[in-house]
Amino acid sequence: MSRIGRKPVPIPSGVAVTIDGPRVTINGPRGELTRAFHPDMVIAVDDGALVVSRPSDARQHRALHGLTRALLANMVTGVTQGFRKTLVVEGVGYRADLAGKVLMLYLGYSHPIRVEPPAGIRFGADAKARTITVEGADREQVGQIAALIRKLRPPEPYKGKGIRYDREVIRRKAGKAGKVG
């Protein structure tokens, strides 16, 4: 058995789970998440916890077992606590501001870049610390939006300018050597 797949996912109080065949809907204080899983995986509520079981020990079923359980655990965590990614803006003149809910990025281009938050995502920007926060209930969506923001100006290895994740280490390169002579 999969060590991850056989662990039950506890359902905290205030969270409602609806199972409709392969589609699971989890409702909590931070919103509602719905996801369709592989039809072979059997998802059930047992003693206040979500339990995932697989029909056979086939390679595909073993892989889906742990994946399904991990996705369910992320959904429960998302509707109770939510997920957050922090990005750091580095560079002279680079900054991020909020105009209402819209994130305005000034990244050395001839124009500011507007990033509209999709449904379920909230942006935060701290001008003093030069940080951007992306928050939401769906872990996959939070990571995707953070990756798209980072892609607008990835960090470069010579001066470290650009947008990087918090605690991301950028391997620095030496510049070209000065003239000798």
Describe this structure in words.
This protein is an alpha+beta fold. The chain has two domains: 9-80, Alpha-Beta Complex (Outer Surface Protein A, domain 3); 83-165, Ribosomal protein L6 (Outer Surface Protein A, domain 3). It has helices at 59-80, 139-152; strands spanning 9-10, 16-20, 23-28, 31-36, 42-45, 49-53, 83-90, 95-99, 102-106, 113-115, 121-126, 131-136, 162-165. The strands form four sheets. Strands 11-12-7-13 form a four-stranded antiparallel β-sheet, with helices on one face. Strands 1-6-5 form a three-stranded antiparallel β-sheet. The model has no long low-confidence stretch (mean pLDDT 93).
What is this structure, in a nutshell?
20% of the residues lie in helices and 36% in strands. It has helices spanning 59-80, 139-152, and strands spanning 9-10, 16-20, 23-28, 31-36, 42-45, 49-53, 83-90, 95-99, 102-106, 113-115, 121-126, 131-136, 162-165. It has a 4-stranded antiparallel sheet with strand order 11-12-7-13, covered by helices on one side. It has a 3-stranded antiparallel sheet with strand order 1-6-5.
Strands in their spatial order, largest beta sheet: 11-12-7-13
Which sheet architecture does the biggest sheet show? 4 strands, antiparallel
Number of helices: 2
The low-pLDDT segments are none
- The span between the termini is 69 Å
- Rg (C-alpha, Å): 21 Å
The assigned CATH architecture of the largest domain is Alpha-Beta Complex
What helical percentage do the residues reach? 10-25%
* Number of E strands: 13
Q: How confident is the prediction overall: mean pLDDT? A: 93
Beta content comes to 35-45%
